[in-house]
UniProtKB/TrEMBL annotation:
<keyword id="KW-0547">Nucleotide-binding</keyword>
<dbReference type="InterPro" id="IPR050166">
    <property type="entry name" value="ABC_transporter_ATP-bind"/>
</dbReference>
<dbReference type="InterPro" id="IPR003439">
    <property type="entry name" value="ABC_transporter-like_ATP-bd"/>
</dbReference>
<keyword id="KW-1278">Translocase</keyword>
<keyword id="KW-0067">ATP-binding</keyword>
<dbReference type="Pfam" id="PF00005">
    <property type="entry name" value="ABC_tran"/>
</dbReference>
<feature type="domain" description="ABC transporter">
    <location>
        <begin position="4"/>
        <end position="226"/>
    </location>
</feature>
<dbReference type="GO" id="GO:0005524">
    <property type="term" value="F:ATP binding"/>
</dbReference>
<keyword id="KW-0813">Transport</keyword>
<dbReference type="InterPro" id="IPR027417">
    <property type="entry name" value="P-loop_NTPase"/>
</dbReference>
<dbReference type="InterPro" id="IPR017871">
    <property type="entry name" value="ABC_transporter-like_CS"/>
</dbReference>
<protein>
    <submittedName>
        <fullName>ABC transporter, ATP-binding protein</fullName>
    </submittedName>
</protein>
<dbReference type="GO" id="GO:0016887">
    <property type="term" value="F:ATP hydrolysis activity"/>
</dbReference>
<dbReference type="InterPro" id="IPR003593">
    <property type="entry name" value="AAA+_ATPase"/>
</dbReference>
Amino acid sequence: EVLVKMNRLGKVYPNGTVAVRNVNMDIPEGEFICFVGPSGCGKSTVFKMITGLEEATEGEIEIFGKSPANARKENEVAFVFQDHTLLPWRKVKDNVALPLELKGVSKEKRYEEVDRVLELVGLAHTKDMLQRELSGGMKMRVSIARALVTRPKLLLMDEPFGALDEITRQSLQQELLKIWQQDPKMTVLFITHNVFEAVYLSSKLAVMTPGPGKVSSILDIDAGYP
Ligand code: ADP
Ligand code: ADP
C-alpha cells in the first residue's frame, strides 16, 4: 500500500528561495527510507511538508489519502528532531505522555502506553527522572518514546543522531531497527548526512540531487536483515 504520495511537489519560501521542486515519490508502507543528499538540497523541507509544518507551494501531497494536516491531527504521523525539545520541568513519563494528554486520553490509559514505549526504548527505569539526569542518548530515547506513544504509522526523523557520540549512535541505530522490525506496518523516513548510517538503516535509499529542479530517486538496498 502506498502511504505517502508526492506529485510534482515543490516549496518556494516566502523570501523567494526555491527549496525543492518537482519531487515525485510514492512511499510504500513498511519501509525504512533514508534520505541523503548534500546540505541545502531540501530534505528537511520535504519532511516539513509531510508533517504539515510547511505547506507545499506546488504540486500535491497525500498521506493515506489525506492532507498532511489531517494525518497529523489523527496522530498517524510523528516526528523526532535532533534537538529533542523535552520539557525540563516534567518527568520522563510526563514528557512521553504529552501527546496522549493533548488527545484527551485518560490518565490510566496514558501511563499504560507510556510504560509500553519506555520499555521499547529500554528506559523503563527512568520514568520518574528529569531531563537533567539523562545523558544525550537517553534524551533521544525519550524523544523516540514520545513519538511512538500514539502508535503512529509514519515516523519521520531529521538527523536524530547527529549530535551523539559514535558508540551511543550505534546502539540507538540498533534499537531503532529493532523497533521498526517489530512492526511490519511501520514506516520510517530518516534524514542523515552519514552515508554509513543510511546504508546500515535503510530498506530503501532516497537520493536527492542538489539544486532546484531536482528529482529524487528511490533505490533498493538489500541490507540483509538478520
Ligand atoms: P536540507 O535539509 O537538505 O539541508 P533544507 O530543506 O533545510 O535542506 O533547505 C533547502 C533550501 O531552502 C536551502 O537553500 C535553505 O536555505 C532554504 N530554506 C530552508 N528553510 C527556509 C526558510 N524557512 N525560509 C527560507 N529559506 C529556507
Ligand atoms: P547512553 O548510551 O544512553 O547515552 P551513557 O553511556 O551516556 O548512556 O550513560 C550510561 C549511564 O550513565 C546511563 O544509563 C545513566 O544511568 C547514567 N548517566 C549518564 N549521564 C547521566 C547524568 N547526566 N546524570 C545521571 N546519570 C547519568
